[in-house]
Design a protein that fits this description.
single chain, mainly alpha, 78% helix, globular
Length: 273
């Protein structure tokens, strides 16, 4: 009788040890959203908000790029720490972290390109190297850069560092395309929008790695957001709409909040990226 009871206790104990492990895996996966159409719309809006918000602090408030980078850098560290410590996916926390990477990326790229005099092409080249290095080290460390592999704090750190580099690169690339390359803000919008459309076509009608296409699309949304943001707040004489950076940022924040409230975002479990 005691052996039977002990066996039952042993079975119960083993089950108790296994189930939490599965639960932890599910919780870790749930911190990264599925890459649906709403995800990409939200991402473009968030990167545009990062552009207008970053410019509002560094330019409209006249704080400068270095001070703006310091402010947003602190915000970035705080929200990333909160995101990593969270036990499950919180849409508002996740997208706040995305916006934080975009704003710090905006001011950091502007500081490097303009204040340090590196230039758009030089800044974009350096940041591209950093981005590729981040992905390479992540892959070497974890064996994958898929969003499905973001299950541990270390993988999350790589995920957010990679995103921060991609956002900073996107700012420099968007500015270079609109200004130095002469495409203008609308031309840049059509260019990066077209490249995103081609990436979507490749996703549905080719066998190119889904992970590679995800990161290609993720990176392309940032320069798209940069040129759209500049189109909204630059003077009419410069090809913009002359909107207040504060008004544009507020409108984008409301739009993103509405998307999160109306459309439920789910965890990226088994999404195949």
């Amino acid at each position: 009788m005691n052996r039977v009871s002990g066996s039952r206790r042993g079975f119960s104990s083993k089950r108790d040890r296994v189930e939490p492990t599965k639960g932890v895996a599910r919780e870790a996966l749930s911190k990264v959203p599925q890459a649906t159409l709403i995800f990409w719309i939200t991402k473009i809006a968030a990167t545009t908000l990062g552009e207008t918000g970053g410019d509002a602090v560094s330019m409209s408030m006249s704080l400068g790029y270095l001070v703006g980078t310091a402010i947003f850098g602190v915000v970035f560290l705080v929200v990333v720490a909160a995101q990593i410590r969270a036990r499950r996916f919180h849409p508002f926390l996740y997208w706040t972290t995305i916006v934080a990477t975009t704003t710090v990326g905006t001011t950091l790229a502007d500081f490097a390109d303009r204040s340090l005099g590196i230039g758009y092409a030089g800044g974009a080249s350096i940041l591209f190297i950093f981005l590729m290095a981040s992905l390479a080290v992540w892959y070497w460390s974890s064996g994958s850069v898929s969003i499905d592999s973001v299950k541990t704090p270390r993988a999350e750190m790589f995920y957010w560092v990679t995103i921060m580099f991609s956002q900073t690169l996107g700012t420099a690339l968007g500015d270079w395309t609109a200004d130095s390359a002469g495409f203008g803000y609308l031309g840049g919008t059509f260019l990066f929008g077209g490249l995103l459309a081609l990436t979507a076509v490749a996703y549905f009608w080719t066998k190119i790695s889904r992970t590679a296409l995800f990161w290609a699309a993720f990176i392309l949304t940032r320069p798209l957001g940069a040129v759209v943001g500049d189109f909204l707040d630059k003077p009419i004489s410069a090809g913009g709409m002359a909107m207040s950076r504060y008004s544009a940022s507020a409108a984008l924040a409301v739009f993103i909040s509405a998307l999160l409230l109306v459309f439920r975002q789910r965890a990226a479990e088994g999404s195949g990226h």
